[in-house]
Amino acid sequence: MRRLLSILLTCLLLAAAALPLTAYAAPTQELTFALNNVPDGIDPGITNNSFASPFLFNCFEGLVTTSTADGSLIPGNAESWTISDDGLTYTFTLREGLKWSDGSPLTSQDYLYAYKRVLTPETGAQYLNLLTDYIVGAQEYYEDAAAVDGLGIKAPDDRTLILTLKSPAPFYLSVLTMWTFFPVNQATIEANGDQWTNKPETYITNGPFRISENLLGERVVLEKNPEYYDADSVKLEKVTFRYILDLSTALMAYEAGDIDGTRGFPTSEFQRIRANVPGLVIKPSYGTTYYDINNAKAPYDNPLVRKALNLAVDRTAIIEEVIQTPATPAYGLNAPGYVVDGEDFVDGRPTFGMGPTADVEGARAALAEAGYPNGEGFPTMHLSYYTNDTVKKVVEALAAMFTENLGITVEISNEDWAVYYANVIAGNYDVGAMGWSADYLHPMTFLPLLATGDPNNVVGYSNPEYDALVEKARSINDPKEAMEVMRQAENIATAEYPLLYMYYGSQSMLMSPKVAGYYLDYSGNVLLKTAEVTE
Amino acid sequence: MRGYVLRRLAMMLVTLLMITALTFLLMHVVPGGPFTREKQIPAEVLAALERKYNLDDPLWKQYADYLGGLLRFDLGPSFKYTGKSVNDFLTAGFPYSAKLGMYTLVFVLLASIPMGIVAALRSGRWADMVLMAAATLGVTIPSFVIATFLLYLFAFRLGWAPTFGVDKWQGYILPIITLGGYSISFLARLMRSSLLEVMGQDYIRTARSKGISEVRVIVRHALRNALIPVVTVLGPTVANLLTGSFVIEKIFAIPGIGNHFVNSVTQRDYTTIMGMTVFYAAFLISMVFVVDLFYCLIDPRIQFDT
Known about the structure:
The structure holds two protein chains of two kinds. By secondary structure, chain A is α+β, with helices and mostly antiparallel strands. Helix content of chain A is 30%, strand content 21%. Chain A has 16 helices and 25 strands. In chain A, helix 10 packs antiparallel against helix 12. The radius of gyration of chain A is 27 Å and the shape is globular. Chain B has one domain: MetI-like (MetI-like fold). Chain B contains twelve helices and no strands. Chain B has helices at 2-29, 43-52, 59-71, 86-121, 126-140, 143-157, 173-199, 202-209, 214-242, 246-251, 258-266, 270-298. In chain B, helix 5 (126-140) crosses helix 7. The relative contact order of chain B is 0.14. Chains A and B meet through helix 8 and helix 14 of A and helix 2, helix 4 and helix 6 of B.
């Protein structure tokens, strides 16, 4: 009897122990996420296309990387680095035992190969400047591969990579988070040429994931890369990136529960989503929406005219009534987001008369001072934009504000991006829609836009004082000191209103609340390394 | 007959050649190039890319090279998507577009011809009114409106069809209805008017006066002739259905080739613009040719001069 009892008891205990195990089934670590744009390629050395980022940032990793916890810069393939006192030499030490997704060892030679490949004209690397602008001898090597001795990229042993810069650039570590600086596998590229990105078996990666299926224009499936050094942190076994190009369809699929997330949705639905749809993720973007003003063309060469335009805009109305997505008014080129010792670059920045709403009197006074009282005699303004639904609405609102607040005549014109951009570059415009989204988290991604001779300075603004300060800031090692100089530079420019400042926007996407651990960064990159399905 | 076929084939080639030449020229005249991106790329990179894709050659040489490739059925590399060729786009996307197009074609034929016949035979009565009202709606409502409405009602609200893609067979239902809507309406109206016209002809009266049954009159005598205009428009219809629709493939997230027709133009992806144009043109011309061959089967009055 006692024996029977003990057996029963044991069974009961076992059953009790087993109970929580059976009741709790671990969720399958699989995710389906909709992308709404097909990238122009997924070769990290070549593309500058932001639509490639879901693949590049999740399949590769560079020397330094972005923390999925708070977006800070953390060691990646490099476990540590030292920067020489003069700020010119960066010495990286790679982690021990790094491997490619095919199991072959990854060494500093792979980094050297990748960077030389970017510096080879035949590669057609679109972010070439991220190397040639900073690294010693990079431009010379690009022009003539025989100049390899002078190239400031060296790999003295398998775990050491040394980069030598032309002048100190304290922000260069953030530049290195860009995919242009990811290593690529020499063997697969030499065997497959530019087809290496097409097939899962030839797309050798070194990051948290690798590609297991790649169906052009339909879906790309990622699987966990078991060779990744930090594979233990990677929870997702499978990520399906499904192309749903129509934003309404993507939203419908999300709301129906057919997908776990979508990168985009119709912005016209934003208010409804914020109120009723769970899973909305919003992040201020490190980017600025502005309008180019043709500084080289009369009457826009007069700073007073540009001031009048800037003062005539009701930014709050545009944000709340037109774009209807989270944004803050812009009073300068730099977006908030760059912080030194707890102080944001834009903290305490003068606004030069610009405000959240229009200052009609101030605007009219500036226009009168420029010789156009009540807009009389002001030539018809050609306000141009590229085909885009949101931009169209903003342009219409802007035109109404200029007409009403300044008394000038505005003519709106629209072209598709390729034609529009060509016209802007050629200076065939008065005022045109534009914007800049940062490549890396540092004001130096913005400031060159107004520097004399910079290829991206399409407004024709030129001020030697500004140029000198930007140049000076490049070589200041102390971040605090550099920030002061960059602020001075920006203020000099803003005082002359080279651009029509509009707003700092935001990135938003939808991700099911059952998914945790992912990170949406300021550029809209979705980092899935530590993402997991929790229920 | 053989002479006719050979002559037609030669004409088709000339037509194609003219289409390629015109497209090639127009495409290069439009401002903006294939490497205009979100951000400006350095001038030296642009030069390197143009060298890579032989865009620095004189235009006539580029065209000659393109024709040379065409002879080998090589449509060239995409300028936009690194590592992909236009042939890749076609082999990946055309099966989706063609499959959807075939199903739609069957649906269109099964629906439109009976609709047209019933409407013609019941001309002026309520069945005719209802069918023709529906057909008018089908022609006038844009497909993206129909698509959005169907998707919202049947996929989202009722859950009878998936919200995107054709991974399951149910995924085909809504795209078929949307894609076929216009053709059904158009063909039904054509069938109706054509049959009505034929029914008023002398030889039909003659047939009836001979005492032949009404069914036989319609099926044997009237339909055969009434179908000729329908067969005529069937050629272009088949080409249109099978080569995909930008709007429908986008809304239903079907990875067909319809997308490339529009995007290649906005992106100035020269080879893809050419490839899509040549593909569609060749398809269309061939279908028109096939239709012409069919004429002799259904209409004894048409004969090929030899």
